[in-house]
Design a protein that fits this description.
By secondary structure, the protein is of the alpha+beta class. The chain has eight helices and 18 strands. It has helices spanning about 1-20, 30-40, 100-120, 145-150, 195-210, 255-265, 290-295, 335-355; strands at about 50, 55, 65-75, 90-95, 95-100, 130-135, 155-160, 170, 175-185, 185-190, 225-230, 240, 240-250, 270-275, 280-285, 300-305, 315-320, 335. The strands form five sheets. The chain has a six-stranded mixed beta sheet with strand order 1-2-6-3-7-17, covered by helices on one side. A four-stranded antiparallel beta sheet has the order 11-13-9-14. A hairpin with a 2-residue loop joins strand 1 and strand 2. The protein is globular.
Length: about 350
C-alpha cells in the first residue's frame, strides 16, 4: 500500500510540473488538457474531452448507483506583476514546488487525479466516481464545469479541489457583482454645482459601507458587500454626469442571489444592475457521510469566503484540497511537495471511509 501511494504521489508531482510549464490562462487550456489526456492514457484509463474539459468514469460505473464527482481546474490567472521567478518554470526548492497554478489549483487537481486512479478499478463501491479536470474556472467562463453538467450523468455529491489545507470547507459564499450608477448634473468645473455626481457618492459610499443584511449564517457569517471600483470623469474641467461603481457581494447560505438582488433594488440609494445571479452559495450537511469520513481523519470543518466551481453545482458539495488559499494569485506561487503527498493520502482515506466503509 505504501509503495502504491508513493507511485501515485510521484506520478501526480510529475504531472503538476508538466502543467506548470504549459501556459493555461482561462480559455487557453489546450496544452494542459492534452497533458491530462496523456496522463490518463499512460494509466490505461479511458477519458473523454469536451473543449478543454477532460473527464473519466470509474471502470465499473453502474447507473443504478449514486455518483460522486471529483473536480478541480487546470486554468490559471495571469501571473502577478510582482513575480521575481519564471512563473512557467517548475522548481522544487526547500520542499516548495514553485510555479503558476501550483497552489491554485494544480496541487488539488493532480491529487484528485491520483485518487481517482487509485479507485478506478475498485469493485463494490457505494458510489460511482466521475473525475473532471475543468477549464475556465478562474474566469467563470461558459465552457467550464458548468457546461459539463448537461453532459454528465446526475451528480449526487461532489468534492471540489481547491487549496483548503485539507480541511473541510462545508459551505462557500456565493457571489453577485453589481454595476451601480450615481447620477448628477454635468457642468463646467468653474461654475457652482450643487448636484456633483462625485460628491453625491460620499453618502452613497457610506451607505454601502454601513449596510448590514439581517441573516447571519452560523457557518459563513454575514453577507459581505464591498465597493471595489469607482470610475468617473473625462477631463479636469468637466463635472461628470454620472459615476460608475462596481459592488462585490459575497452571499451566505441564508440568501439566494435573487433575494440579494431584490433587497438592493429596493433599498440601495442608487441604480444597481446584477451582472449574473448564477453563482449561488453552496454547502454540504455537517452530518453527511463524506464529511463524517473526513472528520474521522482529524479534519475540521469551516465556511469558505472564496468562490470556486462549487457555485456551478446544485448537489451537496465539499471543498477540500492541499495548499493554502492565501497563496493563490500571489507572486512566486508555490505548494509544498509534502502537501501533495498528504493530500493524496487523505483523499484516499476519506474516500475509503465513504465509498467502502473502511
Amino acid at each position: 500500500m505504501k509503495e502504491l501511494h508513493t507511485t501515485l504521489q510521484d506520478s501526480a508531482l510529475g504531472l503538476l510540473k508538466e502543467l506548470i510549464a504549459i501556459q493555461s490562462f482561462s480559455s487557453e487550456e489546450n496544452g494542459t488538457a492534452d497533458a491530462i489526456e496523456r496522463w490518463f492514457r499512460l494509466r490505461d484509463i479511458s477519458s473523454k474531452r469536451v473543449k478543454n474539459n477532460v473527464y473519466a468514469f470509474n471502470k465499473y460505473f453502474d447507473e443504478s448507483k449514486p455518483t460522486l464527482l471529483l473536480n478541480s481546474h487546470h486554468d490559471t490567472v495571469h501571473p502577478n506583476e510582482a513575480y521575481t521567478r519564471d512563473p512557467f518554470k517548475p522548481e522544487i526548492i526547500d520542499g516548495k514546488l514553485y510555479g503558476l497554478g501550483s497552489n491554485d489549483a494544480g496541487g488539488a487537481l493532480v491529487s484528485l487525479l491520483a485518487t481517482f486512479a487509485y479507485f478506478y478499478s475498485h469493485e463494490g463501491m457505494s458510489h460511482n466516481i466521475i473525475v473532471v479536470a475543468s477549464a475556465e474556472e478562474e474566469s467563470s467562463g461558459p465552457d467550464g464545469l458548468n457546461s459539463m453538467l448537461k453532459i454528465l450523468p446526475p451528480i449526487d455529491v461532489a468534492i471540489v479541489g481547491e487549496p483548503t489545507l485539507m480541511q473541510l470547507a462545508i459551505a462557500e459564499k456565493g457571489l453577485v457583482v453589481f454595476d451601480a450608477e450615481v447620477k448628477g448634473t454635468p457642468s463646467h468645473a468653474a461654475h457652482p454645482n450643487d448636484d456633483n455626481a462625485i460628491y453625491n457618492c460620499i453618502d452613497i459610499l457610506k451607505w454601502f459601507r454601513d449596510f448590514e443584511f439581517d441573516r447571519v449564517s452560523p457557518v459563513l457569517g454575514p453577507v459581505k458587500m464591498t465597493v471595489t471600483q469607482l470610475n468617473a470623469g473625462s477631463q479636469h474641467n468637466v463635472v461628470p454626469a454620472k459615476v460608475h461603481l462596481v459592488v462585490d457581494v459575497r452571499v451566505n447560505d441564508c440568501y439566494s442571489n435573487k433575494e440579494i438582488a431584490g433587497i438592493l433594488s429596493e433599498e440601495a440609494p442608487c441604480q444597481m444592475k446584477a451582472r449574473s445571479l448564477r453563482l449561488n452559495s453552496s454547502s454540504i450537511a455537517k452530518d453527511h457521510p463524506l464529511v463524517l469520513s473526513g472528520r474521522e481523519q482529524g479534519r475540521s470543518t469551516y465556511g469558505s469566503p472564496t468562490l470556486s466551481d462549487q457555485a456551478a453545482l446544485s448537489c451537496q458539495s465539499l471543498k477540500l484540497g492541499p495548499g493554502d488559499s492565501t497563496r493563490s494569485h500571489s507572486a512566486n506561487e508555490f505548494i509544498y511537495v509534502s502537501e501533495i503527498e498528504e493530500g493524496i493520502d487523505l483523499y484516499i482515506k476519506i474516500l475509503k471511509g465513504f465509498l467502502l466503509g473502511d
